[in-house]
Amino acid sequence: MTKKLTIQDLAAMRDKTRSLTVLRDGAGRAKVTVHMGTCGIAAGARDIMETLLEEIRSRGLQDVIVTTSGCAGLCNREPMATVEIKDQPPVKYVQLTPDKMRRVIAEHVLDGRIVAEYALAVGSETMY
Amino acid sequence: MKHHRAHLLVCAGTGCVSCGAFDVKTALEKEIERRGLADEILVVATGCNGFCEKGPIVLVRPDDIFYQKLSIDDIPLLVEEHLVKGRPVARLMYTPPADTKPVPKMADIEFFRHQRLIVLRNRGRIDPEKIEEYIAYDGYQGMAKALTEMTPEEIIAEISASGLRGRGGAGFPTGKKWDLCRTENASPKYLICNGDEGDPGAFMDRSVLEADPHAVLEGMVIGARAIGAARGFIYIRNEYPLAIQRLDIAIRRAREFGLLGENILGSGFDFDVEIVRGAGAFVSGEETALIASIEGQRAAPRQRPPYPAQSGLWGQPTTINNVETWANVPSIIRRGAAWFAGLGTETSKGTKVFSLVGKINNTGLVEVPMGIRLDEIVNNIGGGIPGGRKFKAIQIGGPSGGCIPAELLDLPVDYESLTKAGAMMGSGGMIVMDEDTCMVDIALYFLRFTQEESCGKCAPCRIGTRRMAEILAGIAAGEGRPGDIEKLEELAWTVKRGSLCGLGQTAPNPVLSTLRYFREEYRAHIEDKTCPARVCKNLIAFAIDPDKCVGCLLCLKACPVNAITGERKKVHVIDQALCIKCGACFTACPVKIGAVSKLTGEKGRALVPEATRATTS
Amino acid sequence: MNITIDGRALTFEGRPNLLELARANGIRIPSLCDNPGLHAYAGCRLCLVEIKGRNGYVPACATEAGDGMEVLTRSADLDTLRRNILELILSEHPNACLVCAEKTDCNDFKSTARKVGEATGCVLCSNNGRCELQDVVEAVGIDRVRHPSIYRNLEVRKDDPFIDRNFNLCILCGRCVRVCHEVRGAATIAFVERGSSAIVGTPQDRTLLDSGCRFCGACVDVCPTGALTERAARPELLPDRTARAICPLCGIGCEVEVGIRDGRIITISPTADGPANSGQACVKGRFVLRASAASPNRILEPHVRKDGVLIPAGWEEAFEKAAGLWKQHRPEERALTVSAQGTIEEIFQSAKFAAASEIGAWTATSEGTSCPTFRFKEISQARTIVLFGTDISETHPIVWVEVFKALRNGARLAYFGAGPISIKRHVALNLEARAGHEIPLLAALAKIILEEGSAHGSGGNTDDLRRILEPDVPEDTAKAAGVDPDDLRSLARLFAGEQPAVFLHGPDYGEDRGGAGTALQNLSLLVGARRLSLSVNCNGRGLAELRRLFPAGETSPENLIEAVKSKRIKALCLADGGTGLEGVRPDVLIGRGAFWTAALREADVVFPNTTALETAGSFVNAEGRIQAWDAALPPPGSARPDTEILAGLGQVLVFEGFEAVDIPSLRKDLAARDGAFAGLAELAPGDPRDVFLQVSVEASSTFLPIDAAIAAGDRIDGNPDIYKGWDPVREVKGLARVRNSPKKKVT
Question: ipTM, 2 decimals?
Fold first, then answer.
């Protein structure tokens, strides 16, 4: 039987569902775009995606949006992912592996420190 | 706990449902399952997005990609390209009529860009059947504040300060209405939500109820607290089954969570609602008729005063407000009167939902700040008139409203300006008309509607509108006589001043406003026996230009009464005696050839044998 | 408070609406849908007026007068608006006659047009000359209708008794629907369809009879046009004079207006504000009573038996013969019957005759003794009403109207009795008991009330009652009576709720045989309810007082029949046809009556008397109200009022006190002899004052043992429709159809 809510319950319920609103509004603090496209997938972008999602799940992150895009053009540097923190220029990471992805999440996404050795470029691009 | 990376918001308002939205949703779910993406991608059915002509619609979030006019055949491609490979599909996106390139993001589409959502803030972004999603977007926070931090007087003061006016059409200040009820001493008191929405072409309230029923419930709890009611009724017209279903689910969920019923949120305040279904009459949208209907009586209006605030349902003080009005309340309480009053004009605060329909490119439901100019709505949001035709008029306010002509398109949309121009805000119906619309025909259409829907209680409305409709029908049929316009005007005056309720009092408005701005068209019908817009069947004739006809047989095959004779490569001829003026030939003739034309006036009459001109239709 | 209407400064008090205020001050505002007694409808829109400071126009019927208001009923715009609206109304109603310039000269021409059979103009309409639409057209002044006429072309409905329905003439004022729903509670007719198709109709367009109509005629009375009419009223047969009367067909005493033409009754309808009936009537008074005057069963002259055959005779011969027969036997062998349907003066006269004859025995068609007076209007103030054994919608339709008024104000109704009643749907609690079990059930009820402590009464010592009720076990009693014990408890709880409570009962609970009256008396004392006894006969209540003036020797009809059989009584004089005494043939049988009955056909001498319409007289109705009237029309044949018959007989028998026979003398005499009738002396017909019996009987304030003798009520001998031996169900086909209809709803 459902519990009748108090005001505190109501607020708690809202807070617990922040990830939903963040996603639907596209208003996260951080956005990670995994570049797919045929080459990306061939290179292992699906694993990067799964790793990314797994990390978000296990860490319980509420304010990170994950999107995809088509081929970014640098087909021999796949798999690639771009990390964009709000109000900061996006950073493109190349030749990722699941472990590297985890590190990027831990350091850049959560802590704000760019992992230079994996990064290709820092700068804005027009993306879908 | 699942964390999806993308949500596919499938528009499931009645408009999209009727063109297959649920099939699209099922196809999406199946394909996503098949591709092993079910843990990553969530498919959600939401309420109406408002861009109704483009359904079925799917929004991909967080990307904000807007897909439209989807069929189930498009789904495998969409899933493969966009969701697996990350490449959004341009073919399925929206392309504005004058452009060649699609606009991928919803936020960039003109139709959406100029809107300001308060009432419809949750449209297209929550599943209306999941109360958790409503709560996620600050749902019931306004109610919590009202129940625990505000006194009834403070709630009313806040609503009054916001400047909210009734959205059902009359525009009465909501705070004042609540206060009048609150100060009555009798008990019990009742709350009613008017969801009867009878204006032809209006679907604002339906969309709110289908997209965000909890907003209405939350507003009602706040209102109940303000006036001191423990029981509320939501009167929905029976022709809205999806709205009824979603509202029913919402009520049950709210009760389960203690957000409706006894001791709401532990505040000690009790309030519960029940749904009452309408029985198929436009007049039961009038507040006293609605009350009679809930009481089990025939839905005939009652003389006011006394007003429902003093003596309403079962003789008790009753506050009755429109769906849209109630849906505004939670936001006002949550964000404050000053925020709301910051939108709109001096006298008309906040936003208004309009249904934009008719001869317009972007048909749908829009919410705009009061004070926006009509031409912004027609051109920017609406995308202009299709087919390159010319704007002629916009009918605002349904059968109670009037037409605004092209020269007044810079009018700001607010209660007073519209009324001064002879129209009415009404519940928010906007019907756009182009040069192919006959204003006499339009007036006749609306008058026939009010005639059919009149309850029959008072003589001026029951008989007066009928007499007006007879005269108008005569004019449209080419039997108008000098003096008809004066007769219409006198009847209109009688009906307006003499009728008991708003239906009768405003029924002559379409006639009066078309007479005001398009008097010449009436004169042409009466004196010249001409329909300038070429609509009124008795005053037009279809003819095939022998210089243009190439003998392709298309019109001949299209004619439902075999009135066209001809052979391949020989000029076709329409037998005027058989022609029923349906226009099938006109549509069938290829645009490049354009051999069929509609004639009126002397030229038209010359073609039609006297004997077959029909009498009053 | 002050108000200005059309520049005239007026004062008022209370909360009148503008329409009634204007009318009270002689300012005419036309209206077609307004009617006293009905809630304002504001549908015809003819009474629109202008109030300074308010936008638009408001209907005067639905607008309360306010202190300081300035009202305009006429202005150029208002006049035009009113005329336009009336024109619209007329365009849906055959209007040729209404606006014809030859209206007044038409008489010369209309005889040929009569064959049409449908009212296509005023001259063919039975409402012609009495039509409110005609009046309003006249007042507003219309000479043209500028719209094409619409004729609905509906079939004229003549398939019901008494009432014709021609909705081609209906102007949708709604009065008929409103009176049926708001006042009578029958809800037989309502608006159907919508807009231009809206019309008054019945469920699935059935006949009125099949829709539960009881033909009270209220709808016909309020209809402003000829849409609802009584079949008997044909346009060429309108009354040429009217007379006021009191209907004698039940104990309510409705004040009616009798329309007469050439000495024949054309129509009878309730007056606008009868003190007992407030403008309402029932099928009997409205449509049936008129047939009594010209019934083929009337006795037109005296008859005497010669050679075993009754033949007509002259009055002198009849008096002589009757006197001779009466003197043949000793006084103690003489008996007479007294009818509760006679007038006060007639009963008084027969009391004098009985005393002068020194009769041995007498019996009356009603029992009962004096009880407190009340007014029907008080019933509408009750919050809890219990009907004991009487279906008032049949026996006392006007009382039902008052009960319905109470129900509309939120009162609750319970029924306690044997057999179903037609007003079941209004009843909150229904206790149908098996016949014969009512008294134990009443005792059981009282016991439950004592147990549960829901007693409200302030009189009586409840210990007394406990002792009286000792042996009862409510559950057993209830089951034996066929009543659910829980229902009995619910009824008990009803009394603990809303006060004041009122018990309404008819004769079954009034007369004391078996103690029903006592049990009811105890119960009413226990819960503080008023017990109102509803006498059934037109003068049953009067007889309850007048029996004091009779000599000793009152007995029951059964005992009298026995006495005749055993030859203790050898001479019997019957009143009013001798109903209930059929088959009794003493040595001497003298009969007085207006209609031939089986008993009269056995008599030696028969004297023809009058109905209440043909003599001056007075009744006491169930309230205890005394109402007087003058004769509406002369008696048929040579019939005479009973007062004159007994006086004639008395004179021939040389009895004292039978010299003066005029009504005023009789009244003075009675008023002097019996204080209860003090008000009768100066009572003039149509007296606007309320004149009641002056009784000093207080409701008992002690509980009575079950076998105590208490009776206060009337008795129906069989069929309540019988009047002076006249059975209208046999003679008036329409009434037979109404009584036999299986679809009975409430009047």
Answer: 0.91
For residue A33, give both structure tokens: 């775009």
Note whether residue C7 is domain-resident.
Answer: yes
Tell me which residue range forms the domain holding C48. 2-74
Is B300–C191 a contact, with Cβ atoms under 8 angstroms apart?
yes
The CATH number of residue C388's host domain is: 3.40.228.10
Q: Are the CB atoms for C140 and C83 separated by under 8 Å?
A: yes
Q: Does A124 touch chain B (CB under 8 A)?
A: no
CATH of the domain at C68: 3.10.20.740
Residues of C in contact with B497 (CB under 8 A): 48, 56-57, 77, 81
Taking an 8 Å cut-off on Cβ atoms, the answer to whether B133 and A17 are in contact is yes
Kindly indicate the confidence band of residue A89, based on its pLDDT and cuts at 50, 70 and 90. confident
* Residue B408: partners with Cβ closer than 8 Å, 6 or more residues away: B374, B421
Distance of CA B420 to the CA centre of its chain: 22
Is C32:C224 a contact under the CB 8 Å cutoff?
yes
Q: Do C285 and C168 lie in a common domain?
A: yes
Which residues have a Cβ under 8 Å from the Cβ of B407 and sit 6 or more positions away? Answer: none
Calculate the CA dihedral of residues A96, A99, A101, A102 and round it to 10 degrees.
-170
**B462 contacts C195? CB cut-off 8 A:** yes
Instruction: Tally helices (H) and strands (E) across chain B.
Output: 25, 17
Minimum Cα–Cα distance from C197: chain B residue? B456
Chain B: closest CA distance from residue C190 (Å): 9
C383 and C512 in a common domain: yes
Do C338 and C204 sit in the same domain of this protein?
no
In a domain, C13, yes or no: yes
- Domain final residue pick, C482, C501, C533: C533
> Which of B65, B137, B257 shows the shortest C-beta gap to A5?
B257
| Residues of chain C above pLDDT 70, percent | 91
Select from B305, B460, B487 the Cβ nearest to the Cβ of C45.
B460
**Strand A91-93 versus strand A81-85 pairing type:** antiparallel
Do C136 and C272 lie in one domain? The reply is yes
- Test B87 with A37 for CB contact under 8 angstroms: yes
CATH number of the CATH domain containing C169 = 3.30.70.20
Residue keyed to tokens 């169930």: C622
DSSP, res A2: P
Mutate to test the interface with C, among B419, B455, B462, B499 (most CBs of C within 10 A): B462
Q: At which of C293, C315, C331 does a domain end?
A: C293
User: Do C527 and C456 form a contact (C-beta atoms < 8 A)?
Assistant: yes
**Shared-domain flag, residues C10 and C60:** yes
C278 and C151 both lie in a single domain:
yes
Q: Is C726 within a domain?
A: no
The CATH number of residue C664's host domain is: 3.40.50.740
Do C276 and C310 lie in one domain? The reply is no
A88 touching B (Cβ < 8 Å) = no
- Measured CA to CA, the distance from residue B406 to residue B375 in angstroms comes to 9
For the residues C398-406, what does the mean pLDDT come to? 94
The pTM is what? Answer: 0.90
Q: Give pLDDT tens digits for C450-486.
A: 877 766 666 667 777 776 666 667 787 788 778 888 8
Average pLDDT over residues C410-414: 90
pLDDT (tens digit, 9 = 90+) per residue, C170-229? 999 999 999 999 999 999 999 999 999 999 999 999 999 999 899 999 999 999 999 999
Query: Is the domain of C446 the same as that of C466?
Result: yes
Cβ neighbour number for residue C201 with a 10 Å cutoff: 19
Percentage of chain C surpassing pLDDT 90?
59
Which residues of chain C have a CB within 8 Å of the CB of B470? 148
Chains that touch B (3 or more CB pairs under 8 A): A, C
Does residue C745 sit within a domain? no
Domain count, chain C: 4
> pLDDT per residue over B479-503, tens digit each?
999 999 999 999 999 999 999 999 9
